[in-house]
Amino acid sequence: MDDLMRGVEAALFAADEPMSAEALAGFLGDAPLAEIRSSLCDLAEHYAERGVRLVERGRRWHFETSPDLAHLLRREREQSRTLSRAATEVLAIIAYHEPVSRAEIESIRGVQTSGGTLDVLMEAGWVKIAGRREVPGRPTIYATTPEFLDHFGLASRRDLPGIDELRATGLLDPVEDAYDALIGEGEVDGPSEAGQTGAQENEGSEA
C-alpha cells in the first residue's frame, strides 16, 4: 500500500462524514484526482472481504460494516422508523422523479400531501429541499439525499429497483395505480385506490 493510498484510508477513517474523490484530493494537498480514484478502487478491493468495507454512495466514499456481520452489532433493543403509507409513497415518487415539487407529487398520487409528510422524510435525513422550480410561483422542489442512498444500500439512483421488485420487498405495498402507470412499469389494472379515497384524505391523517 503506497503513501497516497494510506493517506486516503486515514482521511476516510477520520472523517466525520463521507467524502468525495474531489474532497479527498484537496484534503491530501491537491493530489491528482485520477490517482485518488485509483486508490479508492484499490482500497475498496482491499477491504472487500474484511469486517468493514469501503463503499461509494452518491459519489461519496465511507467505511461501513460488512452486511453479513450486521447482526453482531445490533443493539438488544432496536428502534426502527416506520413510515406511513403516505410517506412511503412520497419518498418513492421523489426518488424516481427528483427534483419534484409538492404539486407534482400530489398530481402523481391523486391526493393532497401534507407538509407533515415531507417534514417526516426530511427529519429522517432522506429528503432535502433542492431549490425552486423556475416557473410562476417558484414552488419548492425536493430530492433525495446521500443518506437515503446509504440507508437503502444504493450507490446511486441508477440502482433503484423496478416497481415489481419494490412490491416484492414490501417497501411499496401497495403503490397507487396512477404512479404505476406514470413510470411505465405496467398497465393500470383497476381504479386507483388513491382516486377512490382522495376526497376523504386530509392533512391531519397523512403524516
TrEMBL record:
Q: Which stretches does UniProt call biased (Polar residues)? A: 194-207
So which domain of life are we looking at? Bacteria
InterPro entries xrefs: ScpB_csome_segregation, WH-like_DNA-bd_sf, WH_DNA-bd_sf
> Where is the stretch described as Disordered?
185-207
Q: Which residues cross the membrane?
A: none
Question: What keyword terms does UniProt attach to this protein?
Answer: Cell cycle, Cell division, Chromosome partition, Cytoplasm
Q: Does this UniProt record's set of keywords contain Cytoplasm?
A: yes
Q: Where is the signal peptide?
A: none
Protein name stated in the entry: SMC-Scp complex subunit ScpB
Q: Which organism is it from?
A: Qipengyuania benthica
